[in-house]
Specification:
Keywords: Methyltransferase, S-adenosyl-L-methionine, Transferase, Ubiquinone biosynthesis. One of its GO terms (cellular component) is mitochondrion. This is Putative methyltransferase. The structure is a single chain. The protein is of the alpha/beta class. It has one domain: Vaccinia Virus protein VP39 (Rossmann fold, 3-Layer(aba) Sandwich). Helices cover about 35% and strands about 25% of the residues. An 8-stranded mixed beta sheet has the order 3-2-1-4-5-8-6-7. β6 (about 215-225) and β7 form a beta hairpin. It is globular, with a radius of gyration of 17 Å. The two termini are about 30 Å apart.
């Protein structure tokens, strides 16, 4: 399995505070949503999956099936569903899937198409081959050891011509200094031990893995977290964190 039991154990300890947007251990992830959704929207416009006219509607992701792998407590799945997409969130942690399901049940209208499933991508992939228009791997791949195998299982669920959106940390000295030493160990904004240096992935490595899995990378954007303001922004350099958009070749 590509799932690391220690990663699940680490994230489970924050389950009760997962949806505390302002002061909880996941506040940086909550703050990332605007940037993530903007990146997804722009990427889908660039491949003509949605139009400018669509984006004027409240539910501009309608008619798109999205798979959010490693969805945790549903921080990104929920707003994507609110934008009209038919969203499935997968996570190997039963505790976090319970958090996500409880939040959705309590806060979403019945007409929202969103379901959460406690399973691994290995188990889910084969019965759902080429089912999804969009695949999301946000702040996930840096927690996986066997990255290319994991990516292949994920991309198998994507329709030919479908888009995969990934956000992650670069394996660079600057990323180690800022994201791990400063943000985790000094400021304690992200829980200590969340990121392991050896599991981080460079844009070049990600591009190589995606190519091997039959995808073409269209965009890699540098992104930066500003901890004192709890906001994210796009930056020209991808030295610390980055967002990638790739398309599965037909």
């Amino acid at each position: 399995s590509t799932v690391d039991a220690n990663e699940i154990k680490h994230h489970n300890q924050f389950a009760k505070e997962w949806w505390d947007k302002n002061n909880g251990p996941m506040k940086a992830l909550h703050a990332m949503n605007d940037l993530r959704i903007q990146f997804i929207r722009t990427g889908l416009m660039n491949v003509n999956k949605i139009s400018e006219e669509d984006c004027e509607k409240a539910k501009y992701l309608q008619n798109l099936k999205i798979l959010d792998v490693g969805c945790g407590g549903g921080i990104l799945s929920v707003p994507l569903a609110r934008l009209g997409a038919d969203v499935t969130g997968l996570d190997a942690s039963s505790e976090l899937i319970e958090v996500a399901t409880n939040y959705a049940t309590s806060n979403l209208k019945p007409d929202i198409n969103l379901k959460f499933i406690n399973t691994t991508i290995e188990e889910y992939s084969a019965p759902h081959k080429e089912e999804y228009d969009v695949l999301i791997l946000s702040e996930v791949i840096e927690h996986i050891s066997m990255k290319e195998i994991f990516l292949q299982y994920c991309i198998d669920t994507l329709k030919p011509g479908g888009s995969v959106f990934i956000t992650t940390l670069n394996r660079s000295n600057l990323a180690w200094l800022t994201a791990i030493v400063f943000v985790e160990n000094v400021l304690n904004i992200v829980p200590r031990g969340t990121h392991e240096w050896s599991k981080l992935i460079t844009p070049e490595e990600l591009r190589h893995y995606l190519k091997n899995c039959g995808c073409k990378v269209l965009q890699i954007n540098g992104i930066l977290y500003i901890p004192f303001r709890n906001v994210w922004c796009f930056v020209p350099q991808n030295t610390i964190c980055y967002a990638a958009h790739a398309v599965k070749q037909i």
